[in-house]
Amino acid sequence: MTLRGIETCIALLGGSFDPVHQGHVALARHFFQLLAPDEVRIIPAGNPWQKGNLQASAEDRVAMLRCAFDTQLMPVLIDRQEIQRHTATYTIDTLKAIRAEVGPATSIVFMIGADQLQHLDSWHEWQQLFDYAHICAASRPGFSIDAQHVPQQVSFEFSQRAATPEKIRNTAFGLTYLATDLSVEVSATEIRTALQRGDKPELLVPPAVLDYIELHHLYRN
User: Fold this and answer.
1) Where are the alpha helices (H) located in 114-184, listed in sequence order?
2) Do residues 209 and 64 make contact, with C-beta atoms less than 8 angstroms apart?
3) pLDDT by residue (tens digit) across 4-43?
4) Could you give the CA distance from residue 147 to residue 86 in angstroms, rounded to a whole number?
5) Is 143's pLDDT higher than 80?
6) Whole-angstrom distance, CA of residue 98 vs CA of residue 110
7) What count of other Cβ atoms lies within 10 Å of the Cβ of residue 87?
8) 63, 97, 135, 159: least surrounded by Cβ within 10 Å?
9) Inter-helix orientation angle 58-69/207-215, to 10°
10) Statement: residue 147 has pLDDT above 80
11) Predicted model pTM
12) Integer angstrom CA distances of residue 187 from 88, 92, 108
């Protein structure tokens, strides 16, 4: 939907952030530079339906997000709405709530990585996500929207809705963009495994986050 008078742009980044790592920071920074949103909103999951129990508490994950993003030169807000829910966390519910909050004259951009794009069709009511926001994905060089990389339905939706960053910035919802020049690939599972071994994954985790993990003895077992 193109809407004259788009006033603001909000970029959203959701995830378990267990822990937050350099891949998350790089993804947010990449689209901040590309879209120049007025706000980057980080949304830690409460009870994500597709994942098992989280190892770090909600308070620790929020604290680690602050450690990771407080030094970034972008306007970041940590949104706790999914943590405050007592039911399963679905992205569609979060987008509906944010659209109701900000109104129709705001471009809402939901940022994801290529790994999430590959499983987008398994998300609850995934095709309705486009009724509330744009979806922008970032991947390594060589990734493309075709049957070899993503499910056919996802490929079709992404191809049909593809737009330029400028159009996304000035449209309320319903468009897509694939950035294929982000080569940062980090696994939170690998980070937790390294920490459990007593290793320090210094290249994978922001320094302040690693300091917080060590200070609070997280991911030890």
Assistant:
1) 114-117, 152-161, 165-169
2) yes
3) 579 899 999 999 999 999 999 999 999 999 999 999 999 9
4) 37
5) no
6) 11
7) 9
8) 159
9) 150
10) no
11) 0.93
12) 23, 24, 26
